[in-house]
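We now fix the convention by which a protein and its fold are recorded. The integers have meaning only within a learned vocabulary of local backbone shapes. The record below shows the convention in full.
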Amino acid sequence: MSRNFIVLLTLLFLLSGPAMGKYSDFERSSFAAKGATHWANPKTLADHFGRHGADFGAKSADDYARTASDFFRRSQAERLPTKIAPDGTIRVYDPKNNIFGSYNPSGTTKTFYKPDPAQHKLPSNLDYWNKQPGASPWQP
């Protein structure tokens, strides 16, 4: 099996809920309330929130982290464009809403933002997406 396939299977397991099955509804809601637990490096969350939170209407860093995590779950359910890099990094792009997220194989968020050609210096956000490393798990 390829590494990408194994990463995808792990993600599907994590996002499907069986790993959370041993916890009570109260405990699960407590995990969901702690958005920072979804962020890979809590030391970078405040900076990312400051730069990108307003783009998503986030009222706090935790709200921003939860939004990023929710986007990841939704993206996989909707099979949005996804790339898995050789190092296991999972990148997702929603071209309709211009949302980009990068995640660890564990599902924790590395970064989450709306790409801007003025920042990435490519002609379009689709060009930015196409330059991202990795292969789609949705292709045979």
